[in-house]
């Protein structure tokens, strides 16, 4: 069926602003009330509209009168006789009025005829059907009676027409995809979808159109926007139809040039399952309390149906305390819970140039099967695509050595089936809902246990005093103990006391605390470089005090600062893990100290 392109001599238009055209010339419409009366009668052309309904629509509730209505009808009849006497007339029938206008002169009637004809020819030539529906949509110039008051715009007849408009676009989208012409419909479908945010069938066709146009990233973002909107506004999940369209894009069932890559041997419907977590540490030691808390948080409530956000946990502590080791150990313990994969990124938060979240997103997307050429350039689009890909999947994301909240936020999944494990030296209190777990230096027993695991129990029990002194000189820092253990393991003939003798020299201790690619000094250098110059000067003055405790007043006096500046500097140094808080047991009174290895780093920088 081909839509007749000939414009009728009389053309009454309601599919957009109200217009009346005669021989192609737009007429000036009558005054307000006759104009509104015409609009309502056109919506119900050929039907009797009760007087009460006309009064409600034209004048509003309880405002108009029968006399006013009859006056408006009289004026409208005069206008029609003058402008369209040959085709339109108004009849008074019982308790209402009816407009008689041939359907060929009303754009809404012609649109509906085209839509009905398409249903009748559903098995016909798709190209002819496509042309007919495009012609039908060309009758639309905006929303029905665009510009009219809400009272009229709330008419059920208007809602019915706009629903039929959406149906037409959906049919056209399906046809356009079938004949490989999706670009023909995409702009119109996208514009209409913005005006109908909760129309799932329409948004589903839009997802399919994006995918058919070779835009899988935009298809997935459209689904993510729909999913979020339905969850937040209506508390429901997308329909099965929408979910199937989403999965079709993921599985590359639709054309997607330059889109998702399928590894060799991977069949349709197979999702990429990344396993990026580094290997667990064989001699993992201690941290029983931290491990229990993290496992309980990330595993114990995994099936909580009331949760609407991803689970987030953060491990914080000083450089060398073993935050990464704890995170990796937890990730391996949770491998069976998060069956759809684990993503890992070293954010290099203490480095002079921390890792950019957009670069991390690019790596995550490629790990999830997105082809290099299909990764969006825009940061927001990358985040949206990433969240779409992990939506509904049980995945654990490990973000190691985070600098701050701004670096982390774009990397947080939006799905409650996911979890995030973050490590960093600062407490990321700005990440909403995060369970923050502190890991500090080992106690002496756990430090010696780690040393024994590396060098052997017999060797430690043979020199218990030397082993105790070694872990003390390491300030019970796990990284320092591990370095010493590695050095001793490499020299099985070397007594522990020999290494202790070297560590006693404060000028050389940090130099001795390095082996292979591990060095205590590296972490201190990175953190120190990020301090403000005036705070670094305060740290130097405090280090010169030696192994003593001090108060805020001491800082103010020694560093020549007023009280507020002293509090500020101490807060920064505590946050950066250069200064520790010593519990005095008295409410409101705190003592501080510079940690031993930090003091040596400051006093003997190289």
TrEMBL record:
Presence of keyword Transcription regulation: yes
Q: Which residues bind DNA?
A: 1-101
Q: Which residues form the OmpR/PhoB-type domain?
A: 1-101
| Alphabetically ordered keywords of this record | DNA-binding, Transcription, Transcription regulation
Its family remark reads:
Belongs to the AfsR/DnrI/RedD regulatory family.
Protein name stated in the entry: BTAD domain-containing putative transcriptional regulator
Q: Taxonomic classification, please?
A: Bacteria, Bacillati, Actinomycetota, Actinomycetes, Streptosporangiales
């Amino acid at each position: 069926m081909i839509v007749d392109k000939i414009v009728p001599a009389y053309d009454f238009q309601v599919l957009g602003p109200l217009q009346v055209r005669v021989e192609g010339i737009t007429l000036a419409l009558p005054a307000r009330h006759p104009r509104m009366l015409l609009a309502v009668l056109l919506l119900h052309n050929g039907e009797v509209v009760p007087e009460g309904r006309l009064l409600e629509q034209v004048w509003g509730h309880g405002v108009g009168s029968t006399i006013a209505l009859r006056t408006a009808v009289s004026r409208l009849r005069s206008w029609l006789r003058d402008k369209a006497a040959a085709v339109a007339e108004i009849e008074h029938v019982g308790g209402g009025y009816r407009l008689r206008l041939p359907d060929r002169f009303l754009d809404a009637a012609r649109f509906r005829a085209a839509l009905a004809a398409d249903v009748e020819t559903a098995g016909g030539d798709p190209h002819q059907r496509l042309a007919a529906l495009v012609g039908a949509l060309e009758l639309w110039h905006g929303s029905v009676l665009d510009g009219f008051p809400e009272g009229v715009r709330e008419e059920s007849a208007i809602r019915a027409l706009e629903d039929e408009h959406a149906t037409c676009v959906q049919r056209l989208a399906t046809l356009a995809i079938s004949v490989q012409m999706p670009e023909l419909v995409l702009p119109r479908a996208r514009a209409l979808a913005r005006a109908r945010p909760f129309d799932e069938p329409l948004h589903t066709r839009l997802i399919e159109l994006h995918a058919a146009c070779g835009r899988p990233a935009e298809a997935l973002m459209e689904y993510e926007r729909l999913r979020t909107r339905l969850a937040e506004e209506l508390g429901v999940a997308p329909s099965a139809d929408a979910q199937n369209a989403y999965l079709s894009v993921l599985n590359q069932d639709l054309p997607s040039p330059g889109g998702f890559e399928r590894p060799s041997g991977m069949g349709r419907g197979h999702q990429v399952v990344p396993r990026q977590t580094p290997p667990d540490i064989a001699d993992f030691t201690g941290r029983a309390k931290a491990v229990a808390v993290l496992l309980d948080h990330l595993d114990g409530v995994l099936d909580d149906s009331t949760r609407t956000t991803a689970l987030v946990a953060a491990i914080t502590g000083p450089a060398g305390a073993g935050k990464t080791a704890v995170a990796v150990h937890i990730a391996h313990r949770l491998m069976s819970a998060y069956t759809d994969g684990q993503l890992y990124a070293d954010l290099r938060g203490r480095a002079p140039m921390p890792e950019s979240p957009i670069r991390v997103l690019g790596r995550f997307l490629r790990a999830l099967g997105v082809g290099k050429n299909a990764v969006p350039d825009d940061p927001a689009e990358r985040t949206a695509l990433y969240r779409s890909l992990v939506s509904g999947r049980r995945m654990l994301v490990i973000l190691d050595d985070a600098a701050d909240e701004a670096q982390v936020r774009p990397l947080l999944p939006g799905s409650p089936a996911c979890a995030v494990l973050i490590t960093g030296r600062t407490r990321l209190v700005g990440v909403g809902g995060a369970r923050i777990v502190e890991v500090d230096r080992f106690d002496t027993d756990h430090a010696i246990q780690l040393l024994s695991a590396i060098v052997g129990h017999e060797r430690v029990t043979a020199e218990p005093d030397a082993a105790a002194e070694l872990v003390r000189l390491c300030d019970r820092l796990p990284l320092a103990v591990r370095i010493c253990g590695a050095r001793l393991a490499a020299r099985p003939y070397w007594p522990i006391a020999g290494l202790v003798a070297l560590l006693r020299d404060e000028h050389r201790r940090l130099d001795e605390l390095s082996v292979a690619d591990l060095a205590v000094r590296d972490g201190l250098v990175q953190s120190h470089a990020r301090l403000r110059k005036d705070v670094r000067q305060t740290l130097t003055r405090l280090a010169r005090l030696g192994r003593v405790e001090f108060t805020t007043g001491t800082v103010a006096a020694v560093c020549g600062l007023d009280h507020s500046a002293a509090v500020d500097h101490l807060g920064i140094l505590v946050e950066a893990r250069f200064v520790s808080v010593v519990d005095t047991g008295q409410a409101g009174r705190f003592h501080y100290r510079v940690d031993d290895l930090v003091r040596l780093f400051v006093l003997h920088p190289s």
